[in-house]
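Input chain follows. Return structure tokens only.
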Amino acid sequence: MKRRSFLASTAALAIAPELARAEGYPDRPVHVVVPYAPGGSTDTGARLLGERLERILGQPFLVENKAGGGTIIGTEAVAKARPDGYTLLLATGALSSNAAFDMKLPYDTFRDLVPIVHFFDVPILVAASNGAPFKTMPELLAMARAQATPIPYASASGGSMQHLWAEYLKQQLDLHIEHVGYKGSSEVLRDVVAGQVPLMVDLLMPTATAVRAGKLRGLALAATRRSTLLPDVPVVSEVGLAGYEGTIPNGVMAPAGTPPSIVVSLNAAMNQVFADKDFAQRLAALGLTVTGGTPDAYGTLLRDETVKWRKVIREARIPPPL
């Protein structure tokens, strides 16, 4: 299907979701692979989406957790699945960052998978220990430019999207900051709250919980609008960093070769879910911002993200996370 006619079909179905059913689909349960262990916000978001899709499409959407390999194990399972619409992937930001590292993957990110929809964004939060010498983002930027000794900053993992975003900021603004990699957000929070590292760049959750409890100071949210979880923390455009948003895109993918009628059907049903205010609020409570849109837009975003992060990785000489 040509791009123009595909987008027109998607737009029409968004207006009339009752017409969005591909003939006979689905007639049995659909499996949604989440490449993380159960219990996190991504897993919870996938389950909430599955519940709503079952109401619309009349079949269960069952979440399967296939963790490991930096999301590669779960992604490979979907990339090699039968392209019939009954195996889907909850794709995280690692889909584009893994491609950007030019690692030898057991699948081709852009040939073996087809986009369905941009599901949600995970904002990145910059926070400081209460004893840090900078109290605001402008103060941090001024200090990071002026002093020769780099300011250490922590992230949950070397090669993570939050690490790449911080290095992008470093490169663009000529900041003297130095990454300290950890193995998970809990370790980062422990050391930054204790003042062992003055600064952290991590996901909105669980960092927001520590900020709300007064254990950390939120400096800036790398998003286009403030979060209801931290209404007093400014976004980057409010602290002189317009254009440096750092949200991590998550979406839904299917194996390449999935019939276009099924892609259109799923896209329309998912956008119908995203339009529900209650659903959006439930995800916002998890630190996730619902997005939506066409398959084409999500595919373009993934390619643009890959190009952007590949440049950052090469300039900073960041090794692959695996």
